[in-house]
Inverse folding.
């Protein structure tokens, strides 16, 4: 057992939920890209209910929007960890941050592709 592990059972679940909300709050207050994606989701998710598509298609349209939020959270976490290690310019740090950015680009491309295939 790891000495860094905390509570078990319901207490652990409640703690984990608190940490998750702390992470969402940190992303929303500290990351402009996350706020922009939240705004995009606020626009696109209700719009998905406007179109006459099947339930499966609607679910997919919503899911890809949420995937972009997940990718941005992970990208921000990678950037924070890299910055915590060192603010010095280093090729590996640049690669890690660029790959996170590329992942977000792919996620946004996925939104565009899925919505286009379903609606066009």
């Amino acid at each position: 057992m790891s000495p860094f592990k905390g509570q078990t059972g319901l207490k652990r679940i409640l703690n984990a939920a608190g940490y998750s909300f702390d992470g969402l709050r940190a992303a929303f207050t500290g990351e402009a890209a996350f706020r922009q994606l939240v705004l995009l989701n606020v626009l696109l998710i209700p719009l998905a209910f406007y179109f006459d598509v099947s339930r499966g298609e609607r679910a997919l349209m919503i899911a890809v929007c949420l995937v972009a939020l997940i990718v941005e959270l992970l990208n921000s976490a990678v950037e924070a960890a890299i910055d915590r290690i060192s603010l010095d310019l280093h090729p590996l740090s640049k690669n890690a941050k660029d790959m996170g950015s590329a992942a977000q680009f792919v996620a946004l491309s996925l939104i565009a592709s899925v919505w286009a295939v379903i609606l066009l």
Observations:
- The chain has a mean pLDDT of 94.
- The helical segments are 9-30, 32-50, 55-85, 91-119.
- The two ends are 53 Å apart (CA to CA).
- The CA atoms of residues 62 and 74 lie 19 Å apart.
